[in-house]
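Example record

The entry below shows one chain as it appears in the dataset: sequence first, then structure tokens.
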Amino acid sequence: MIWINHTENYPPCSTHLPGKDLNYTNIVTSFLKNHDKILILKRSDKVKSMKSLWAGISGIIEKDDLSPLSRAEIEIFEETGIKQEQINLLKESQQMKIVSVQYKNHEWNIFPFLFKVENPEIKLNWENSEFEWIKPSNIVNYKTVPSLDKILFNLL
């Protein structure tokens, strides 16, 4: 199940919703666009969740982050080695909520971003084992984290 929340503000990283038996985690998911292709990353077997699934560049929004955008820029550098001055924000989409299939009574609040890059050199860290530049329509051919195609197509 996926729906869009039209609020501008975001609560701190991971918490329990009062009055509900539901926990949530705020996450950024970014895509890099190089000409007509999008970068996707295969999560390594060393990460806690979603092992060996293809994903965008993602990370949990931490309580001291200035904004989801600043966390997205940090994650891009950490996971790919691409510096902030090498990326240009093309689009920031509405927050999307995804009910977790992995954890009971848990929801992922996704903050999606699309950035433009020009022929960057990719240097993966331990969180990912592979990367590919793909045409967006080909995302359906990959085993991805839940609703990655919906997040991507909402940005295009």
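Notes for this example: The chain has a mean pLDDT of 86. Residues 89 and 115 are 4 Å apart (CA to CA).
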